[in-house]
């Protein structure tokens, strides 16, 4: 397996994404940022959470052949134990993150996707890539976006609307009828999307935080096939550069209304076939 990846923070902010790989596995997390003026109950912050959970997961997936949901549940419990005596883990804004786990084991590719980061599989002889994304947060949030999306995304009014939007969605987090993310409840791992595919059917895979996938699923400036080709031919940094170009071209969210004008962007490309 050949792995390349790149990650870039949104301008002026700490990077809350995490990406790592072993010879047989990859892990990507996208920390759910806390808007300015909103409390999280945690003194460590989102970047700490995503890096600590990600590091725990990459160690676990290297050492255990157990089911991916089990590994995620144990990792959530481990990270919670590291700050349950200093932070309010019952706070609805406690740090959280999306998770993608991908592992090649024996003759199978196994994956787990929790929340809205995107896994794209380049399947041999398939007309289109297979795209796995958990869109339950987007479904829950759709009814609350109108005010935020109507405002100039560089304005104070937009920042206030975004904070209200995020705080409203907290009541839907990690419950039936809402959406699920890695936070403090290990049961969230059971709600992840999981699957397997014969390894000889998969040419490559892309793991994308939503800050990187927005080139396709929000900006519609590329197809998933074109994104895979960019990753393969030019590398993850080029894909992220295209995202930044698009964001800079629309600083007020007039063409593409969005909560964050700029977002942390992370992309990993895994190739399972030998280069010619």
Top keywords for this entry?
276 residues, alpha+beta, five-stranded antiparallel β-sheet, 33% helix
Could you please describe the fold and organization of this structure?
There is one protein chain. The chain is globular. It is of the alpha+beta class and 276 residues long. The chain has helices at 46-63, 68-83, 136-141, 146-149, 156-169, 210-217, 224-233, 236-249, and strands at 2-8, 17-21, 25-31, 97-105, 108-114, 118-123, 130-133, 193-198, 202-208, 265-271. The protein has one domain (2-135, 179-241, 264-271): PPM-type phosphatase domain (Phosphatase 2c, domain 1, 4-Layer Sandwich), CATH 3.60.40.10. The strands form 2 sheets. The chain has a 5-stranded antiparallel beta sheet. The chain has a 5-stranded antiparallel beta sheet with strand order 2-3-4-5-8, covered by helices on one side. The model has no long low-confidence stretch (mean pLDDT 95). Helix content is 33%, strand content 24%.
Mean model confidence by pLDDT: 95
* Gyration radius, rounded: 18 Å
Give, in order, the helices and strands: EEEHHEEEEHHHEEHHHE
- The share of residues in helices is 25-40%
* CATH architecture type: 4-Layer Sandwich
Strand content: 15-25%
**Morphology call:** globular
CATH topology: Phosphatase 2c, domain 1
State the domain count. Answer: 1
Overall number of strands: 10
Pfam family, one: PP2C_2
InterPro entries: PPM-type_phosphatase-like_dom
Domain PPM-type phosphatase: 15-235
Protein name: Protein phosphatase 2C
């Amino acid at each position: 397996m050949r792995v390349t990846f790149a990650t870039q923070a949104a301008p002026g902010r700490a990077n809350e994404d995490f990406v790592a790989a072993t010879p047989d596995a990859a892990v990507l997390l996208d920390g759910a940022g806390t808007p300015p003026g909103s409390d999280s109950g945690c003194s460590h912050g989102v970047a700490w959470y995503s890096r600590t959970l990600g590091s725990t997961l990459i160690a676990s997936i290297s050492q255990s052949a157990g089911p991916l949901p089990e590994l995620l549940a144990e990792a959530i419990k481990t990270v919670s134990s590291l700050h349950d005596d200093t932070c309010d883990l019952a706070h609805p804004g406690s740090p959280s993150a999306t998770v993608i786990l991908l592992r090649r084991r024996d003759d199978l590719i196994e994956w787990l996707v929790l929340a809205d980061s995107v896994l794209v599989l380049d399947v041999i002889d398939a007309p289109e890539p297979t795209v796995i994304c958990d869109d339950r947060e987007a479904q829950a949030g759709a009814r609350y976006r109108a005010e935020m999306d109507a405002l100039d995304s560089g304005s104070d009014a937009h920042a206030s609307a975004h904070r209200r939007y995020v705080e409203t969605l907290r009541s839907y987090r990690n419950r039936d009828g809402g959406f699920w993310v890695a936070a403090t409840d290990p049961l969230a791992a059971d709600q992840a999307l999981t699957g397997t595919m014969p390894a000889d059917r998969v040419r490559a895979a892309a793991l994308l935080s939503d800050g990187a996938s927005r080139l396709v699923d929000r900006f519609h400036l590329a197809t998933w096939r074109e994104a895979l080709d960019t990753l393969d031919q030019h590398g993850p940094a080029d894909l992220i550069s295209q995202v930044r170009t698009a964001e800079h071209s629309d600083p007020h969210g007039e063409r593409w209304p969005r909560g964050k004008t700029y977002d942390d962007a992370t992309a990993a490309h895994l190739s399972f076939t030998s280069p010619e």
